[in-house]
Amino acid sequence: MSHAKSGEDANGECRDSKSRVTIVGSGSWGSVAAKLVASNALKLPSFHDEVRMWVFEEVLPNGEKLTDAINKTNENANYLPGIKLGRNVVADPDLENAVKEANMLVFVTPHQFMDGICKKLKGKIKGEVEAISLVKGMEVKKEGPCMISSLITKELGINCCVLMGANIANEIAVEKFSEATVGYRESREIADTWVQLFSTPYFMVTPVHDVEGVELCGTLKNVVAIAAGFVDGLEMGNNTKAAIMRIGLREMKALSKLLFPSVKDSTFFESCGVADVITTCLGGRNRRVAEAFAQSGGKRSFDELEAEMLEGQKLQGVSTAREVYETLNHCGKLEMFPLFSTVHQICIGRLKPDAIVHYRNFGPNPKL
Ligand SMILES: NC(=O)c1ccc[n+]([C@@H]2O[C@H](COP(=O)([O-])OP(=O)(O)OC[C@H]3O[C@@H](n4cnc5c(N)ncnc54)[C@H](O)[C@@H]3O)[C@@H](O)[C@H]2O)c1
Ligand SMILES: O=P(O)(O)OC[C@H](O)CO
After folding, report:
1. Predicted TM-score of the model (pTM)
2. Is 341 exposed, middle or buried (0-12, 13-18, 19+ CB in 10 A)?
3. What positions constitute the catalytic site (predicted)?
């Protein structure tokens, strides 16, 4: 991979011997990713110290631009207040400028913005560049679902690994131990470079040769988290919530294998699988907002609750539930996925929140 190379290229020009990393995104997880990568970039001789972070520009209540504030205080006051990112993190509001020197790109924005970001970067990524996506979500195109790593590869012409796991950003920000999974398609060497760049004593990263399985785990668990939030909002108790998590995990596995038969069973036992289902259903934002939705009897909209409760952070589960529903409807498989299809119908008000347990086909299903 390019980061280890040095000397002159075929035209006799001097080649940079070190890798440059840019983080595309600066929400709560984007900021924690910057912190993890920045601490390792300082320690590892094969990386430039500076880590650029593209920031979707916003203005703070005091009138200051978010980018200027990050560069002055070394903190992201909007999305990760109180946490120093590392002095080698440089916030940049200009997307093209932020990526132009980088040969390692870390994509970490809410999934609904990735199509626009890829369109802006199309034709702008030159040379040997590797990418990794921390984005939990997918796009649904006319031809069917498109994982974010595939979108990046198709639009930008670069290889893309993924990093998913039981990773609530605020906990990793204060260096509480957790694990993550890097999914890769071909090169184990590239996966190992990403593992090296993200690993710290409190963040243990494992590579898995199953990019689709890892990415679908990270994507689909957000729908299960919405279901868990409904259960909490209706005070249905721990047994019901555990049942929803089990059924959800089973539907995650079945849908992943339906879309990509190569997906491995073992992936669901990695951090990206069962561990992420557990943490998201216990402590995630999707769960929290879905709980409030159920408490309102479905009368308040997710958009309204998201704006009120998350202060600019974005939910992924509601749009993913819609995308999953569209995908299943398109291929005539809705009845095989009662949990996923019910979550969407509750989100759009077609069913009441208590419908989350109101049907009988959660038992053994020979088709799953
Ligand atoms: N927060 C977590 O705990 C966590 C953990 C693991 C994975 N993830 C995943 O990481 C991804 C990024 O989430 P996050 O938590 O860093 O973000 P966030 O929800 O904390 O913040 C939202 C981000 O979107 C940006 N934004 C708003 N409008 C935009 C636009 N029009 N174009 C581009 N960007 C815009 C905001 O500036 C902000 O940076 C998501 O897919 C999420 O599921 C999040
Ligand atoms: O807060 P959520 O629901 O977006 O979940 C955060 C992470 O994905 C948990 O791993």
Report:
1. 0.95
2. buried
3. 221
- CA 1 to centroid of ligand 2, rounded, Å: 31
For residue 283, the ligand 2 atom closest to its alpha carbon is: 1
* Residue 16 DSSP class: P
- Reduced to 3 DSSP states, what percent helix, strand and coil does the chain have, rounded to the nearest 5? 50, 15, 35
Options 221, 333, 352, 367, the catalytic residue: 221
Can you read off the two tokens belonging to residue 327? 């995908």
Structurally, how many domains does the chain consist of? 2
| Ligand 2 and 284: CB distance under 6 A | yes
Ligand 1 neighbours, Cβ below 6 Å, are 25-30, 56, 58, 79, 108-111, 113, 134-137, 167-169, 312-314, 316
Ligand 2, atom nearest to 313 Cα: 4
Q: What does the DSSP 8-state code read for residue 12?
A: S
Q: How far apart are CA 299 and CA 305, in angstroms?
A: 11
DSSP character string of 84-123:
---TTEEEES-HHHHHTT-SEEEE-S-GGGHHHHHHHHTT
- Nearest-CA residue for atom 5 of ligand 2: 284
pLDDT tens-digit readout, 94-120: 999 999 999 999 999 999 999 999 999
**Cβ count near 336 (within 10 Å):** 18
Residue in 185, 195, 173 with CA at minimum distance from that of residue 215 = 185
Domain that holds residue 8: 2-209
Find the 176 Cα to ligand 1 centroid distance in Å: 21
Would 366 be classed as within a structural domain?
no
Any ligand 2 atom below 6 A from CB of 320 = no
From atom 7 of ligand 2, which residue's Cα is the shortest distance away?
168
151 compared with 1, residue with greater pLDDT:
151
Ligand nearest to C-alpha 138: 1
Do residues 149 and 161 make contact, with C-beta atoms less than 8 angstroms apart? yes
Which CATH number goes with the domain that contains 41?
Answer: 3.40.50.720
C-alpha span between 67 and 60 (Å, rounded): 10
Q: What is the pLDDT confidence band of residue 359, given thresholds at 50, 70 and 90? A: low
Across the chain, what does the average pLDDT equal? 94
